[in-house]
Amino acid sequence: MFESLTGRLGDVLGRLTKRGALTEADVTEALREVRVALLEADVALPVVKSFIKRVKTRAVGTEVLKSVNPAQMVIKVVHDQLIEMLGSEQQELNLVAVPPVVFMMAGLQGSGKTTSTAKISKWLTEKQGKKVMMASLDVRRPAAQEQLKILGEQTGIATLPIIEGQMPVDIAKRAVQSAKLQGIDVVMLDTAGRLHVDESLMAEMEAVYKETHPTETLLVVDSLTGQDAVNVAEQFKSRVDVTGIVMTRIDGDGRGGAALSMREVTGCPIKLLGTGEKLDALETFHPDRIANRILGMGDIVSLVEKAAETIEKDEAEKLALKMQKGMFDLDDLASQLRQMRKMGGMNSLIGMLPGVGKMKKQLDNANLDDKLLVRQEAMIQSMTPKERRNPQIIAASRKKRIAAGSGMTVQDVNRLLKQHKQMAGMMKKVKKLGKKGIARGGMQGLLPPGMKF
What backbone torsions phi and psi does residue 132 show, to the nearest 5 degrees? Predict the structure, then answer.
């Protein structure tokens, strides 16, 4: 997401930082390029005009142009205005109501409503400790109710039993009554969609809304539809009280203009992002973190949170003890590869690191493939337990068998063993560092020969 915009803004703002002193003409020229970059990223024209006007008003002020580092001040102004455009502060799902709290999911057909319903239900169950029930009100799309039932079985979340021929408003009423009897905390109502906004869709939505009085009405929009997603949001907002937006398929959109336009055009906060097909691929929307990613500043906070969620405490403690002893075998490497895959793979992790946007071309040339983690783990699994503990005993004949067993080549096995050897060497340096102490120059031992700390 925002891949093209990050690259363009990085180039424009990078040129500013090389100039030192700035004039009003320099800032105007840079903002002209920023304007083009935003339009190419599919941001709505009124939003671009408003954004550029606000940035220019602040960026050509005396306190910026006469500051010690004017270019950095301009970048800060752009950063602050991006956060404001995206909604300033994170908006949480509203759970403050007498149970059962009703969440109504709305949107066009194919936007990902049913999957998002299951994702949010799973998220509320695991992260918030809520008892959730899902109910499908889609009586038009073939097997829509059956789809939600299957998703409920996959996630272990209760679904309202299907009664053939019952209409959406009656299903919604039955769902709320059933939830009260069962002590359910949150009822997720998955409404029907259409291929486009029409009167019958809106009338059905309004009827369900009036019957259930939902605490949250979440509009699901597909980010791949670009500016049309913003138009759809405006139309829904005009008929029901949309309280938040869920953007899906953001992993497939390199521009991200719909997300940048959505808040300013509709006034509705983006609350959640669908980041993939899996049922745990859901993120809360943080305007400041998204702004950091757009400007190539990385997103260390999200990276740390993702690590905290996926890294298993027991395994981390075992590895820490081994590191203290300067030990690191291939079983440990396999464990690290599994953790990386759980956190979204190399591309996902690298994208959260500061300054990576400027290295886009080099990273593309490096051909970082997340399947490499799976292949490396397959090679390790093709080894015997003894070989994994003592890689130095692996002979040439065994390398051929390991390569054949994992569908790889001997060269691939050699590369893996070399990688492990380098990591094991680093662990030994960490052990020495612990003995010497940082205050006595121990950190220098971690650096390659010839490099000064």
Answer: -115, 145
